[in-house]
Write a structure and sequence with these properties.
2 copies of one chain form a homodimer. The first copy, chain A, is of the alpha/beta class and 312 residues long. Chain A contains 13 helices and 10 strands. In chain A, strand 8, helix 10 and strand 9 form a beta-alpha-beta unit. Chains A and B meet through helix 4, helix 5, helix 6, strand 4 and helix 8 of A and helix 4, helix 5, helix 6, strand 4 and helix 7 of B.
């Protein structure tokens, strides 16, 4: 999987993943009105979200390698929300995009098997197989240790999928447990990083990177640079850029010398571009797709300039 | 919420939660055959699961206070699986049971809000509110710290719900990160326990326990007893009993002197009672509900004897 992701990143010249975390309040009024004309319920809300997502994907799919769907924003709309999740994923795939399910699943081994079947593998129905929510890559929480990771590794191997494991998250309180210093002289997140190396060692692609990557927040630039060194084979999924406060200079430490090694997630800044200070006078809310496109191009340029400036 | 849970535990004289984690292979052949007669797909599989769950709930609902639904086993059957999840929860509630969603969700604050809306609170649709997957209590992963917990606490307060936070999980590799010794002289799971106390302090019920509980595996009896002391206000949800290896003597340390303070989860041993060594000669597979009932009564007796023997 990692070779496919990297090939796409190189082809699109964009280490960018567009986060599709569609809160209703992000959706332009005209589009909401259209869907809520007759009835306002979970079903029509999910339709509005799907419509919004599809327009954004249509507008930016040729510029980026991947989209990331934060499943919480679909689960909150119940079954219709998860239908929109599936249909968004399937539309993104049809447009050649790699789909990352930001699901942060985790459990003991036998249950992790069920999650892995749901998102990376196949569900067995006696002699038949079916797929529940097929993703290319998902995010996974490491708190339960190796047992809870192994089933995902097996499906990564078998079905050419990938996972990103939470190492150092972008939120303000991520340090409460992740930064605890252990008696071995390593912080908890460094111990997780060490295990990420181990978990990923049998899934290294031709590119030198593993299909077992890590989530490291853009809001912790120092740790990002440190973790780039600590996990030389792990691709880094870097959230927290843009609306959460991460700047271009903060993310440069995540890249290797070839400008690879990290993929930067931006959600709100792309989805809500049409009402940002920068774009709201240039595009009407009906042109929200064009505004998202302009924002992606803008972000690509900034990252390129940053990478060139850093000599990467 | 915790007062309601404890009242039910006392009323039913059973600190037991029945785990409904229905793998297809747990379902008796006659029931599978009935649903797969025409077609085998996610939809008919979900119908078989729902049918199985309803029969089990019908057979044991008067004996126990709560059921726990492990969502992974529903997600793996896609949208139909999640429909079965909802319908099982709703049927269990109609039978007076408290429903615990074992979802182990976790994310940064804004996303945790979305998860909390999905399971504990309400989804806002402009001026209307709706519910996605309404649970009474859910399980939550603590790796992201306070930000990722706060939205759940708010909904617990506002809507009288509860959460159980993963502290020491039942799986063999739980120690990899959870048991790391920090320079402060506490293990990571003890630091989590400390935070559970803090997070739960504004949610303490009349019973003296908080609606913020903790998950502690039956497979680690020593830590269970230690954590009972470390978190005097936290109710303990104890998985790992039965099929995972936990014995009666292993769980006694989770209880206080009144025989409260812990609720023991059993999944496979109840769901698959009909084919266990103990019950398979007494009940036919058509009588799987009766076998589950016999197993619950058996488990209650054993726990009572254990608690009396320990002087609780």
């Amino acid at each position: 999987m990692i070779d496919r992701l990297i090939a796409k990143i190189i082809e699109r010249e964009a280490p960018i993943v567009a986060g599709l975390d569609p809160r209703l309040e992000y959706i332009p009024k005209f589009l909401l009105d259209k869907h809520f004309r007759k009835e306002t319920n979970l079903d029509t809300a999910a339709n509005a979200i799907l419509d919004f997502n599809i327009k954004i994907i249509e507008s930016i799919h040729d510029l980026i390698p991947a989209v990331k769907l934060q499943i919480a924003y679909y689960e909150m709309y119940g079954l219709p929300g998860l239908r929109a999740f599936m249909e968004t994923a399937s539309y993104a795939k049809s447009k050649g995009l790699i789909v990352i399910g930001d699901v942060k699943r985790n459990d003991i081994g036998s249950t992790a098997e069920a999650y892995s079947a749901a998102y990376l593998g196949y569900t067995s129905l006696g002699e038949q197989l079916d797929q529940a929510f097929p993703m290319d890559i998902i995010t996974v929480n490491p708190y339960l240790g190796t047992d809870g990771i192994r089933p995902f590794l097996e499906d990564c191997k078998k079905h050419k999928r990938g996972i990103f494991i939470l190492v150092k998250t972008s939120n303000p309180s991520s340090g409460e447990f992740q930064d605890l210093m252990t008696v071995e002289g390593m912080k908890v997140y460094e111990k997780v990083a060490q295990m990420v190396n181990q978990w990923g060692q049998n899934l290294i692609g031709n590119c030198g990177y593993s299909s077992v990557g890590a989530v490291v927040g853009a809001t912790y630039p120092q740790q990002l640079a440190e973790l780039r060194q600590l996990m030389p084979r792990a691709y880094l999924l870097v959230p927290g850029f843009g609306a959460q406060g991460g700047q271009i200079k903060d993310i440069l430490g995540g890249f290797d010398r070839k400008g690879l090694g990290a993929i930067i997630n931006a959600s709100r800044s792309i989805m809500c571009a049409y009402r940002s200070q920068v774009w709201k006078d240039k595009f009407s809310s009906e042109e929200f797709g064009l505004a998202s496109r302009a924002e992606v191009i803008n972000m690509k340029d900034k990252i390129h300039q940053g990478l060139m400036g850093s000599g990467a």
